[in-house]
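Human: I wish I could look at a protein chain and see how it folds. This is the protein in question:
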Amino acid sequence: MINGKTVLAIIPARGGSKGLPGKNIKLLAGKPLIAWTIEEAKKSKYIDRLILSSDDDEIISVASEWSCEVPFKRPAELAKDDTPGIEPVLHAIETLKEKYDYVCLLQPTSPLRKVEHIDGCIEKCANNDADSCVSVTEVDKSPYWMYRIDKNDRLTPLLENNLIKRRQDLPNIYTLNGAVYAAKSNFVIQAANFIGNNTSYFVMSKSHSLDIDNETDFNLAKFFINNHES
C-alpha cells in the first residue's frame, strides 16, 4: 500500500517461448528464472498482492513452489505469440474479485531488476501525480546518428533535420527496458496501455536492465550474477 492506496503486482509468464524454450523456469544461477522476480517483488514495501498469470501448468507449479499466488489459469487465447502484453493485465484486473488502486507489471525476463527499482517506480507513479511510471534505460546508440534504407537503396537519416554533429551535443535518449510498469488501475483499464500523455519514468542502469529473450541474453545474465556474487 502507498499513500493509502492498494497495489497489485502481476508476473506474466506464458509457455511456448520460441527464442529460448522453457525460459521462464530455466535455471539461472541455481534458481528458476521466474524466481528472481518473485523474490524481489516479495521484498516490496508497497505491493499488497503478488500473482502469476500463466497458461502453463509447469510454470504455475514452479511459481507456486516459490510462494507466488496463482489465483487463476490464463486462457489459451491470451497466451499466443501475438497477444498484446497488456491483455493479461486487463484479464487479471477483470478476473480478480478484489479491486486495487494501482497495478504493477513485472516481467520474469528481467532477473537483474531489484526491489528498489520496483518500489522506486511505484513511488514516482503515486507521488508525482502521474497516471503511470515505466522503467527506462539510456540507449547506447543515439537515433540522431541512425539511418534507414530508402526506396532507392540509399542511406537516409532516421530523424529529419538531423544536424547534430558532435557527440557532446546529443540529447540523452531513453528506451523502455521492460523491467517495471506501474500505473493507476483505472488508467490501464481506460487506455489499455501503461503509457499515455501523463507517464513518468524511472531510470535504471544498463547492468540492471537486461531483458532475456534468447540464449545469449541468458548467458549474459548468468555472467552478471556470478560476477556480482564473486
Remarks:
- The CA atoms of residues 117 and 180 lie 8 Å apart.
- Residues 215-229 form the longest helix (15 residues).
